[in-house]
């Protein structure tokens, strides 16, 4: 029988994610904030469903995640050079400004650091670190990729991030596949270890 994992990590991350969502909804253009809220919910849900009780063990999964994070930085370079914060304000005629300095500090440097710290934590099977694997897989990767194909349709032309958006589907698809496969393998290992532990006792 699988030992029930401690609940504290899930609670702490839920509170932090809720605080981040509240900040986004109160300060960013509402359309961009909604994407971040949905990304947070998806990331937390995927983490709870697949990697909370069984943190990732395979280095292959972590390697794919780190490659995805590297791609995310390339994607955000396209966004920055194209003026993404200004363009999203203009696209939705938002009354809220989105300063480029804030975009860089929070979403490029801040989240960039968190992504890599999470990769290091995942190597040691730290439960909270696995949240960020799912944050990228379902939020920053899949959902963000979809949004970047919708924005040009709404604008009627190029929108910053479009050229690298397809890569998000590839990277997030690979990561989702490996994360689910990892969960199945860890479950199988637990089932196989069950009878052995019973014999030892």
UniProtKB/TrEMBL annotation:
It comes from the Bacteria. Pfam families: HXXEE. The keyword Transit peptide does not apply. The chain crosses the membrane at residues 7-26, 32-50, 62-83, 103-124, 131-151, 157-180. Keywords: Membrane, Transmembrane, Transmembrane helix. This is HXXEE domain-containing protein. It comes from Nonomuraea mangrovi.
